[in-house]
Amino acid sequence: MTQTREDFETRLRQIGAERYHDLHPFHDLLHGGNCTPDQVRAWVINRYYYQHSIPMKDAAFMSRVTDPALRRAWRSRIEDHDGTDDNEGGIKRWLRLARAVGLDPDYVASCEGVLPATKFAVDAYVRYVREKTLLEAVSASLTELFAPKIHANRIQGLLKNYAFADDSSLSYFKNRLKEAPKDVAFGLAWVLDHADTREKQDAAAAALTFKTDVLWSQLDALHSAYVTPARIPPGAWVPGDGLALQKAS
Predict the structure, then answer these.
(1) Could you give the CA distance from residue 228 to residue 226 in angstroms, rounded to a whole number?
(2) Which residues contact 242 (CB under 8 A, 6 or more apart)?
(3) Both ends of the chain: CA-CA distance in Å?
(4) Do 61 and 137 contact (CB within 8 A), yes or no?
(5) Distance of alpha carbon 119 from its chain centroid, rounded?
(6) How far apart are CA 172 and CA 80, in angstroms?
(7) pTM, entire model
(8) 88 phi/psi in degrees, rounded to 5
(9) Within its chain, how far is the Cα of 19 from the centroid?
(10) 36, 53, 103, 167: least buried by Cβ within 10 Å?
(11) Where does the chain cross the membrane (predicted)?
């Protein structure tokens, strides 16, 4: 039986309550000030791979959309990350965070040293959006429903516990507090409008679950590689690698 609009939204929100990556122990370490400087750097390096892939994911989505109104609504997501004449964009803000934690932004932007599991997870997400139905692609983006809370907790925790944290280095998260609600308001309404059968509702819920798995698996990889006992796979960044560190001026 098809769920009511209200029951279906509750179902989607419950997925986040149970599966969003704010529940991962790595975030407890990070936000609580218990990460070493190198563990913070590893997080910045690997999360960048996700950040720089988001515009490619959104471009892949838009290339399949025949409705101009949907394309117009969606393209702001690319601008939010890539930037415009009036907005430096999330990718540049993330590289400013990289510099603040002592990394060479050029090294981070090269995506060298990213964990294999991070690449597999993020690439799987881009491929998912490229190949699945538009409903599933939009539904996967609804992790943004839960993002403002984690951004607010992150800003508070990093400012309290790390010397590198200030308005400049944390500008990515502060901007997402404004950008994410706009995106998710549109995306949620679109999914609720278009998931008009139980089969489509189940597919949308599965897509959101998939995306929570993508985010969770990235933190699993970080925790396994850089938190005791550290097990860094071949090719991934190794703490102390001078090529990755910001050069003294």
Answers:
(1) 7
(2) none
(3) 65
(4) yes
(5) 13
(6) 10
(7) 0.95
(8) -65, -25
(9) 14
(10) 167
(11) none
Beta bridge partners of 245: 103
Please give the structure tokens belonging to residue 206: 């599965």
pLDDT of the residue at 203: 98
Q: What is the pLDDT of residues 62-110, one digit of tens each?
A: 999 999 999 999 999 999 999 998 899 999 999 999 999 999 999 999 9
- Token readout for 141 is 């983006």
**Residue 25: both structure tokens together:** 């122990």
Question: 136 vs 8, 16, 197, 204, 215, CA distance in Å?
Answer: 15, 16, 14, 5, 17
Please name the residue that has the structure tokens 């507090």.
Answer: 177
Domains and CATH numbers, the chain: 5-230 (1.20.910.10)
What's the whole-number average pLDDT of the chain? 95
Q: Which parts of the chain sit beneath pLDDT 50?
A: 249
